[in-house]
């Protein structure tokens, strides 16, 4: 289903089962802290999100997995927190691109959109998006699904600038803060800190450390809290003819999959390179987690997602990518060697797996998991500004040392 809907003033549309908890925190409407709600059961479910202003929106369904996606101009959105109920598993919201906000609702079962309307602010209530869902069959759901709109292109000003031949021949390093916008990444178990905040702050610090050497051109794949697809990140590195891509993450293990005990035991940094076959099961799980973020943000379906290079098996066989593979492995090894006294590493710090973001054709690329947001001790470090300053500096020095040695001894 795809419908352009205008805000309606039908406040009466709220039904009795919906309980709104409003906590007035300040006089301004934008400052009202509210708890958005989900009501109903596994046959019919109502979803309410609070928005900072009444805007036009677009709603559509996506399959694999079942999702409802709502796009609107940039708006502050509050979706129901915590676990879903009825037909709704969970929901999230955030920036999909500059000026464009998105809500994604994960469904527990195929559902039909019975009603979707945006109610303007009224009395003490902020504007709110009300969606009524009814259980349907898999077949009917699929019939309602149209091709999703293409992922918005990232702000190309940076990569375009990097592409311009300014005569600057300094090595170009692309720094990639994992996640962003509607894709929060992993969430810290103790503090609820989203991975996207940890990676962004760390990358800004790493970028200024490397820029301070005046030896490199630096490009960040995102410079604000915005969603950028994995392929666009990789493409940015290819277009910029980067000498190195460093993707920064801080993931979490799933206690349901590995048990609480593993969460306590598994910690420390890991540096990954691209490989068709994962080096081990844990690397495989982490890569799968990372690779599904585009699907979760509603920009691609698992079966149809395009890849940067056609077939990873074949790209790794061609010469350019053999060089890429060797350089990536060499830098991963070098960084661990130079940082291990200063940063807590995982017991197996160097691993490889099929990470989509690392498929930048011909560009040496590493993905650094700074630690695990699922581990209490790691989380304390990851959320510490001081730790991020120290470790980004240590990493910057190690990258600089590697690049300097390479330039001095090995022709690039
Ligand atoms: Zn991540």
Structure description:
Mean pLDDT is 82; it is low at 1-35, 157-163 and 303-307. A hairpin with a 3-residue loop joins strand 4 (38-40) and strand 5. Strands 14-13-15-18-16-17 form a six-stranded mixed sheet, sandwiched between helices. Strands 1-6-7-10-9 form a five-stranded antiparallel sheet. The longest helix has 25 residues, at 385-409. The chain is built from twelve helices and 18 strands. Helix 3 (195-211) packs across helix 12. The protein has two domains: 2-144, Immunoglobulin-like (Sandwich); 157-409, 3-Layer(aba) Sandwich (Aminopeptidase), CATH 3.40.630.40. 30% of the residues lie in helices and 26% in strands. It is of the alpha+beta class and 412 residues long. Zinc ion is lined by residues 178-179, 185, 195, 249, 251, 290.
Topology, please?
Blueprint: E1 2-5, E2 21-23, E3 33-35, E4 38-40, E5 44-51, E6 57-62, E7 67-73, E8 77-78, E9 88-97, E10 100-107, E11 111-119, E12 127-135, H1 138-144, H2 157-163, E13 172-177, H3 195-211, E14 217-220, H4 230-239, E15 244-249, H5 255-258, H6 260-265, E16 269-274, H7 281-291, H8 293-296, H9 312-315, H10 319-339, E17 345-353, E18 365-369, H11 376-382, H12 385-409
Parallel strand pairs: 13-14, 13-15, 15-18, 16-17
Antiparallel strand pairs: 1-6, 2-3, 4-5, 5-8, 5-12, 6-7, 7-10, 9-10, 11-12, 16-18
Helix pairs in contact: 3-12, 10-12
Zinc ion is lined by residues 178-179, 185, 195, 249, 251, 290.
């Amino acid at each position: 289903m795809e419908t352009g809907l205008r805000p309606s003033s039908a406040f009466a549309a709220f039904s009795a089962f919906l309980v709104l908890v409003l906590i007035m925190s300040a006089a301004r409407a934008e400052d009202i802290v509210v708890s958005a709600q989900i009501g109903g059961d596994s046959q019919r479910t109502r979803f309410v999100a609070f928005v900072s202003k009444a805007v036009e929106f677009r709603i559509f369904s996506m399959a694999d997995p079942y999702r409802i996606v709502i796009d609107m101009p940039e708006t502050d959105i509050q979706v129901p927190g915590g676990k879903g109920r009825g037909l709704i598993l969970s929901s999230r919201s955030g920036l999909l691109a500059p000026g464009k906000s998105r809500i994604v609702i994960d469904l527990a079962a195929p559902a039909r959109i019975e009603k979707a309307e945006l109610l303007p602010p009224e009395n003490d209530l902020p504007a709110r998006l009300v969606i009524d869902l009814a259980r349907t069959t898999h077949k009917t759901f699929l019939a309602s699904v149209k091709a999703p709109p293409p992922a918005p292109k990232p702000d190309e000003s940076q990569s375009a600038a990097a592409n311009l031949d300014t005569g600057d021949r300094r090595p170009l390093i692309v720094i990639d803060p994992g996640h962003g916008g509607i894709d929060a990444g992993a969430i810290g178990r103790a503090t609820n800190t989203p991975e996207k905040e940890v990676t962004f702050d760390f990358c800004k610090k790493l970028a200024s450390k490397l820029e301070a050497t005046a030896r490199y051109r630096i490009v960040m794949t995102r410079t604000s809290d915005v969603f950028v697809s994995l392929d666009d990140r990789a493409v940015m590195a290819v277009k910029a003819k980067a000498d190195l891509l460093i993707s920064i993450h801080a993931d979490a293990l799933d206690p349901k999959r590995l048990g609480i005990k593993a969460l306590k035991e598994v910690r420390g940094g890991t540096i990954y390179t691209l490989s068709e076959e994962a080096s081990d099961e844990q690397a495989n799980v982490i890569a799968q987690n990372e690779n599904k973020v585009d699907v979760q943000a509603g920009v691609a379906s698992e079966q149809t997602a395009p890849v940067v290079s056609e077939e990873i098996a074949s790209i790794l066989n061609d010469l350019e990518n053999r060089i890429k593979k060797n350089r990536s492995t060499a830098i991963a090894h070098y960084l661990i060697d130079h940082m291990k006294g200063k940063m807590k590493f995982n017991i197996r710090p160097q691993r490889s797996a099929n990470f989509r973001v690392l498929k930048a054709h011909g560009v040496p690329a590493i993905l650094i998991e700074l630690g695990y947001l699922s581990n209490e001790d790691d989380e304390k470090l990851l959320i510490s500004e001081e730790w991020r300053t120290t470790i980004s500096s240590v990493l910057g020095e190690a990258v600089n040392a590697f690049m300097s040695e390479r330039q001095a001894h090995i022709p690039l």
